[in-house]
Amino acid sequence: MITRNYFGKITPRISKYVVEKRYDGKWEINKEEYCLKTTAVVGDGVLMWIGIEPFDSMVKAYAWLKKHVNELL
């Protein structure tokens, strides 16, 4: 779902996962729970978790999030 934050900026999110811009201009998927915000990771049965590479655009990050939202920790 595409929403706006309290500053009026677009923040694409699905449940507790949100796509946000990093300091270097890349886009990443973060997990928001109560007052804690962490970088989202993919759950794996063998290695426990795998990091997600940053994306070049918000559209690519949101498309990836929609496809893999059930695999994230």
Mean pLDDT: 90
- Please give the number of β-strands: 7
Instruction: Please give the order of strands in the largest beta sheet.
Output: 1-2-3-4-5
Number of helices: 1
Count of discrete domains: 1
The main pleated sheet reads as: 5 strands, antiparallel
Distance between the termini: 19 Å
Query: What structural category do the secondary elements indicate?
Result: alpha+beta
Which parts are unreliable, with pLDDT below 50 for 5 consecutive residues or more? Answer: none
Q: Name the overall outline.
A: globular
Helix proportion: 10-25%
- Estimated share of beta-strand residues: 35-45%
Give me the strand/helix succession: EEEEEEEH
* Radius of gyration from CA coordinates: 12 Å
Keywords:
7 strands; 73 residues; 15% helix; five-stranded antiparallel sheet
Describe this structure in words.
A five-stranded antiparallel sheet has the order 1-2-3-4-5, covered by helices on one side. Strands 6-7 form a two-stranded antiparallel sheet. The chain has one helix and seven strands; from the N terminus they run βββββββα. The mean pLDDT is 90. It has one domain. It has one helix at residues 58-68, and strands at 2-4, 10-14, 17-21, 27-33, 36-39, 41-44, 48-51. The two termini are 19 Å apart. It is of the alpha+beta class and 73 residues long.
